[in-house]
Amino acid sequence: MPKSDIPRSVAFLPGLVHLAFFIRYALLVPAALVLLAFLGWQFRTNTILGNVFLVDGQHQMFHLTWLSLVAVALAMVEARVTLLNAKDRFPDCPDWDFDGPSFTFAWSAMWITLWLAIGLLIPLVCAWATPYGNTGSAPSLVEIVEHSGLAVLGGVGAAALLLIVASGTARFAIGHQLTAAELLPSDALFRRLVGTRVVAALDGVAAHLLKASTGYAEQVVDDTMHKDDPPIYRLRPGHAQLFFTLLLALVGYATVYFTVKPTNEMVPVLFYVILILIIAGVLLTAAAFCLDLYRLPVPIVLLTAGVLLSLASRNDHYFNMQRRGATSPEPPTLYDVVRQWQPGDDDQNPLALPRSKDGKRTLVVVAAAGGGIQATAWTAKVMTELHRRYGIPFTRSVRLVSGVSGGSVGLMYYLDRYAELTGATSPAATQATIDTINDSARASSLEATAWGIAFYDLVPTILPVRRVWPGLLRDRGSVLEDLWSSRLAHHDASNYTMRRTLHDVEKSGAPIPVFNSTNGSTGARFLWTPIRLIERDNGRICDPEELVQAYPNWDLSVVSAARLSATFSYVAPICRPVFDGEPYPRVPFADGGYAENEGILTVIQALTQLLSHFQTDDEDDQSPPFDRILIVRILPFAGAQPQPRTTYDAQDAALEDQVSSSAWRRALTGPLELLTQVRESSQSERGEWEAAQMQAMLIAEVRRWADRAGRRQAAQTDAADGEHTTMRRWLEPFAVTHNLVRRQKTGEVTPLGSVPESATPTDAHPLRERKHRYQPPLQIASVKFAFTLPGHAGVSHAAKLVFKPTTEEWDDYFTPLSWKMNGRQKQAIDAAWTRIAESHLGNLSPLDEPLFFTAGDEEPSLTLEDLFEHAAN
Predict the structure, then answer these.
(1) CA angle, 273 as apex, 272 and 278 as ends, to 5°?
(2) Nearest to residue 745, comparing CAs of 614, 568, 872?
(3) Which of 150-164, 234-248, 332-346, 380-394 has the lowest mean pLDDT?
(4) Which DSSP letter does residue 457 get?
(5) Side-chain half-sphere of 24: how many Cα atoms within 13 Å?
(6) Closest Cα to residue 82, out of 288, 300, 293?
(7) With left for phi above 0 and alpha for psi between -120 and 50, is residue 27 left, alpha or beta?
(8) Is the peptide bond before 393 cis (omega within 30 degrees of 0)?
(9) What one-character-per-residue DSSP string does 205-239 give?
(10) Is 194 helix (H, G, I), strand (E, B) or coil?
(11) Is 168 exposed, middle or buried (0-12, 13-18, 19+ CB in 10 A)?
């Protein structure tokens, strides 16, 4: 570079930075699109942002393409108008000439190149990421063109046509005096169009109001005007054109609101994201042009205004409570419901639990953990496949289900069609119901959430109109409820309420639903259930609350209860109840996973208190209407199981490189990622520990009862035979199988062997069974169905480098952390169940796991296969 050019270059850079500062918010949308494209390319479809880039079909690609290009064009127009008027508004603005009479060919070519380069980034990344997520392998260029080429070209054409129409309409309505021909290349097509100045009156009013503020209006100078004539003002070139373009955009926004519903499958998630970016870019650019003159920081001013508007409009989130009918009976306790299952003398009670293959009755209790759509899909898959495998005897044995977050949503779909499952008269009807449940559980909810944010949540954030548009209760959470309701057999959510499920429980033996949520004020668990489930001590903040205890005169829909259990703020907002003016506490409710992510604590508390009712010394008390209890734990994540390493190797180095290279990401999203990690590890560990503690507690009671009956010596004698080894295994906190033995009403605990009735107490062992004139001893076991793919020892979404798969099919697979699944993730749900059903690679399947004792056994031997007959195919 010649020395004479160095000072000119040095002087050029500060001016360029200065001008870039004035248009910083106009550049926000292009910068955000570039960042989103980078995230989509870097993280593909398998992380928390991944499935946002999943595009379903040509229609979604078309709409995404044209809106992305329109967003870039609007940003460039905003920047151009700012630069055209910056010299008049800002005294320190560099004196650069931006007032060219028209676009030159070179400038037009550069504008179009930049427009296409930025505007097509998102569509092209989605065109690559979609088949990658659906198949697991990167598509070739030919495949991308075949799959998305026509849709992208159509979107480019639609965007170009929209810009041409906007140019011509603006020139016709505004006139040449108020337009700047340099905003769009298409403006050159209408340079000779004089226009009618339809908005001339509005222009005069706006210019008169803004005349005192430089940069917005200018005085008209005309040779025909007399010096004594009052001054006439008009908007500076570009402002009216931009306002008119934004008016067209507002019309388009309203059109999308009224024509595109949340259930519309033609519009992708990113469409709404870009729509929000457009609105944010316009507001921030306008605010910066106004406030920069006064040196007021735009973010602080807008944040303050947003807080004030929120306070003025009560911009909170709510859900609707329904008044309980005046004639509705008081909700029963769990013990009251269970007593109705007594088979009776003739064994003809329709509510009685069905008998297993050995003639005994098994109470099945389900705990479904949370984890977004992954938990929803896996819960539905496990429950429907167990029904397919074991039929009505198993399904009618399920009498209590406890769900958290996504697990609650999966149970909601299952309970909605429970009557169809148990009432199906043919294998075809059963298969159709199973397919409907699984399809509903795997269907995306992300588009509806984005729609709710773009319309119901965005406008009240800008304007204090929460009560009038579109109402107090409407937000992304209510949109999510509407979407879920549309997929249910009970389409009318107002009639499908928690109290209504109690009717099904008492009349047909349907499962008692428990949707676990979190009280946002105290952090305590809140149980949305139609009965009085858990007895509690008054005044203890650690005790869980329940619907019938906190709101005895109120009810809510099952969909609302499931949503409150799955209220993770980024998807559904933390919200408060509305009681139609009644003075009830309106505490906020959040996702149940904040308190306990598996639902196992609710199950253990309920069972412990239930058994205590059947373990009294009252001789008139009835025996439990079941012979054993099976706890089915559904875990949507297997959890990482790293192999122990004592030396530093290449794997450690690779892990360190990955961690250090993503330090900025961990600082930004680390808390959220850690929240998801503890759900898969420490919270699951706590579930194991809680189940084991129930086991240990009852075993300890058994030993006390044995001692009280005078059989302490027998227990010590059997210790020499290795029985204490079995006891230690039972008492380990992470035992796979939890088998508990309940005392008899007489206080006796009898052996498991076939002992004659004449046997003396010294012949008995406290953990074995003999025929008893009252009832056999009760056993409790748990079986865990964790999502694990064939060949994987167990891997979470963030533990790729700490496991070694034995098959390449799922080598690059991570479980989703969103409310949208791609094709491969749906296939993984089926593959994980196939691994369980067929015991792939020699792994012990939960279906083959020994659960219960039989007479004479030293160890559990009865499996699910031994308990329930296979359903007829």
Answers:
(1) 95
(2) 614
(3) 234-248
(4) I
(5) 11
(6) 288
(7) alpha
(8) no
(9) HHHHHHTTSTTTEEE---TTS-TTSPP-EEEPTTH
(10) coil
(11) middle
Averaged pLDDT for residues 250-256: 87
Q: Residue 456: which residues within 8 A CB-CB, separation 6 or more?
A: 470, 474, 475, 476, 478, 479
**Distance from C-alpha of 681 to C-alpha of 692, rounded to nearest angstrom:** 17
> Which residue, chain included where needed, has tokens 């059947």?
614
In this predicted structure, the answer to whether residue 556 has a pLDDT above a threshold of 90 is yes
Alpha carbons 147 and 152: distance in angstroms, whole number: 10
Q: Ranked by mean pLDDT, which of 195-199, 261-265, 426-430, 813-817 comes out on top?
A: 426-430
Structural tokens at position 635: 């875990």
Of residues 194, 64, 190, 178, the one with CA closest to residue 120: 64
Q: Both tokens of residue 571?
A: 């998807």
Contact assessment for residue 551 and residue 323, using Cβ atoms and an 8 Å cutoff: no
CA distances from 569 to 59, 317, 369, 524, 778 (A): 30, 11, 18, 17, 42
Q: Provide the 3-class DSSP secondary structure of residue 636.
A: coil
Please tell me whether the overall predicted TM-score, pTM, comes out greater than 0.85 for this model.
no
Tokens 């993503």, located at residue: 662
Tens digits of residue pLDDT in 412-444: 999 999 999 998 888 999 999 999 999 999 999
Closest CA relative to residue 248, chosen from 173, 153, 299: 173
Residue ranges in 90-120 assigned as alpha helix (H): 105-119
Residue 352 neighbours by CB under 8 Å, 6+ apart: 341, 342, 343, 344, 361, 625
Cα three-residue angle 278-282-288, rounded to 5 degrees: 140
Written as six digits, the tokens of 61 are 């690609």
User: Does pLDDT of 787 surpass 50?
Assistant: yes
DSSP one-letter code for 673: H
Tokens of 203: 């222009």
Q: Please give the structure tokens belonging to residue 385.
A: 């496949």
Q: What is the mean pLDDT of the chain?
A: 76
Specify the 3-state DSSP secondary structure of 387: helix
> Which residues make Cβ contacts (< 8 Å) with residue 16, sequence separation at least 6?
none
Local structure of residue 453 (DSSP, 8 states): I
Is the separation of the CB atoms in 55 and 268 below 8 Å?
yes
SS3 217: strand
CA distance to 205, 473, 612, 721, per residue, from 714 (Å): 101, 66, 27, 11
